Amino acid sequence: MTTESYSSITTGTPIKKVEETYGPPIAIYSCGENMVYEYTERIQMGDSVVQARRYFLTVDQSGRIIKKEMVYRNPAPYNQIFKENYSQTN
């Protein structure tokens, strides 16, 4: 899943169509009577992940998407820079 593909998914779309197009989700969660399908995207620079995006699709009992949500995070760059030095001193 990418930002572009996520943007093309509209509410009302059957989740089966999403799975046929983009494959199975990384996880499925129960949320009351609905299910939440999670897809992820990792933006890498070399061997490091510089951004992780999580796409959530809430699906009702009829199997249609009723809500979309995207969450992203940028790992702190110093974690990558100092990880090796920190582990050597502790």
Structural key phrases:
single chain, 90 residues, alpha+beta, four-stranded antiparallel beta sheet, 30% helix, disordered C terminus
What does this structure look like?
- This protein is an alpha+beta fold and 90 residues long.
- The protein is 30% helix and 42% strand.
- The protein has a four-stranded antiparallel sheet, with no helix packed on it.
- The longest helix is centred in the C-terminal third of the chain and has 13 residues, at 77-89.
- It is elongated.
- The relative contact order is 0.20.
- Residues 85-90 have low confidence and may be disordered.
The whole-number mean of residue pLDDT values reads: 85
Helix content: 25-40%
Order of helices and strands: HHEEEEH
Lateral arrangement of strands in the main beta sheet: 1-2-3-4
Decide which structural class fits the backbone.
alpha+beta
> What's the main sheet like?
4 strands, antiparallel
- Tell me what portion of residues adopts beta-strand conformation: 35-45%
Low-confidence region ranges: 85-90
> What overall geometry do the principal axes of the alpha carbons give?
elongated
Instruction: Please tally the β strands and state the result.
Output: 4
In DSSP terms (H or I, runs of 4 or more residues), the helix count works out at 3
- Alpha-carbon distance between the termini? 39 Å
Rg, Å, rounded: 17 Å
Helices and strands, with pairings:
Elements: H1 3-8, H2 15-22, E1 27-31, E2 34-45, E3 48-59, E4 65-73, H3 77-89
